[in-house]
Each structure stands twice: as structure tokens, then as C-alpha cells.
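pinned: reference chain
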Amino acid sequence: VLASILSLIIYWLIRDSHRVRDLSGKHVFITGCDTGLGNSLAKWLDKRGFCVIAACATEKGSKELQSCTSLSLKTVNLNLADSNSIARAVVFVTEETAGKGLFGLVSHAEGAAPVAPTDWLSIEDFHSVMDVSLLGLIEITLKLLPLLKKAEGRVINLINTKGLMAFVGGGYRLSTCGMEAFSDTLRIEMQHFGVKVSIVEHGFFKAGVGNSDVIKKYLLRFWNRLSPEIRDSYGEKYF
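pinned: its C-alpha cells
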């Protein structure tokens, strides 16, 4: 019993030594803050005193987030499929951090994705997902690395576990596996600079990509645009 109590005390002391202290002045940039996990995390970190910079895809998302957070939380418009939008967001983050560097980058791109058997899709359908959920997230990470290295910060990539299962065609799973591979490589390379890279594989939270009505809408649209040959090869029963 005494050994167990002693072990528990040692565990608590070690855990407490890793707790982040003096949160004021530590900047965290979060993508995908209109709704969902990005939105919840921005609010949570703001309450705890971090200097949060929240990237939103819409003006509505920015205003709603600002209405329920402190004045220290800043928002910036970000379209991950647009390199110019990414560059503007990087300039904004650089100005907000004012030479201190970036303590944290939380990358998250969740949303509705084309869902259908692979040969129902076009290359444009793959681009519509991967340009945002993979290449866009990689691009903004690369451009923020100098700020992260300056602060010896951390990169945290939120990845939905349903994207790791091969249950449907399209770019969503490719993006998820790609971000896992990118994170694993970056983690090794950034150790030299004191920058940590983590993956958080979260569960099946309700989101646009998993909404059954959205999936049905995509399937119907793709089915209707198929050539007669492909549609006949599958048949109405399959659909």
C-alpha cells in the first residue's frame, strides 16, 4: 500500500512538472474554428489565458466566435485551398506574435467531403478535399515553422479516426493518412529545434463529413451524373 501511494505521488509530481505555466503571452493558432472541435478548442484555450488566433472560413463564423470569447482572441479569415489566403493569415499571425514566435499550431480541417465509390468520382472531387485537408494544412504548417522554431512550440494535428478506415472512396481518407505521414516525418525533423509534433486521433464526433443526409445528397448527385454504362454496371439495387 505504501509503495502504491509513493508511486502515485511520484506520478503526480512528474505530471505536474510538465504542466504549461505562465499562459499569458503564449500564442496558439487554430484552423477550422467556425464550428466543431476547432471552435470548442479556441473557446477553451481563451478561457485559460492563451492568446488565441482563430482561423475561420466565413465572416459569420468569426463574428459568432468573437461574441462569446474575450477581447484577446483574434480571428483571421482563412481559405486553405487558396495560397494567397494562407499567406495573408501567416502575415497576420506574424504581426500578432510580435517577435515572440508561435507557441502552438493546431491544424484541423473538418467538413463535408464527396463520398461515393471511387469510380463514381472525378479527379476534381479528389482535389476538392485534398487541396484543403492535406495540401492546405501542409502549406500553412510550412510557412509557420519559423515562428514555431523561434518559440520552440508545438504542432498538433487533429485527425478523425473514421478517416483511417477504408470504408468509402474519395480524398478524405487519403488526406487523413497523408497528414499522419507528414506529422511523423515532421516530428523527427523538428526535434533538433525543440519543436514538438503530435497527432490527436479523435473519435466519431458529429460533423458534416459524417452526416447521413449529406452523404445521401452526395451519393444521389454522383449517381445522377454517371454515364449510363457505369450506372448499369452497378445497377439500382447497388445504389
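why pinned: The first strand starts at residue 27 and ends at 30. The chain has a mean pLDDT of 90.
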